[in-house]
Give the backbone structure.
Amino acid sequence: MQTSNEPCTSPLSPASGDTVCDLVTVPARQGLEAVDILRRGAADAVGPVLHDDDRDTLGFLVPAGTAAGWDVPGSTCTETDGRGLRLAPEPPVAGSDWLLPPADDAGLATDPAVLREALGEAARLLAAADDCR
């Protein structure tokens, strides 16, 4: 597993330092499990991740264009088109915090194929755990 070599940018320059990437949003429980899966696979397998306390979700930054083909049940992928998303120490969305902040030397997004696999594995693990209750 590895981080995508595609940074969160596009051929069109974002205005005012905004970052162009897509955002995959999942329920926090599944997202946290996916982060664990990704981090066990390789140290750099996951890019920046937002935690939205108000909505109890995690948001994974993925390369621009991912939303066009995203089809993972239980998740959504939204194009940001650079609308105010900044990879800065402070989170770009009110009510959220960085679970995994952007790296100073990178800004690389999570590879969508790797994220898809991790989310699938996380869903299976959580379903098995719920069945044991």
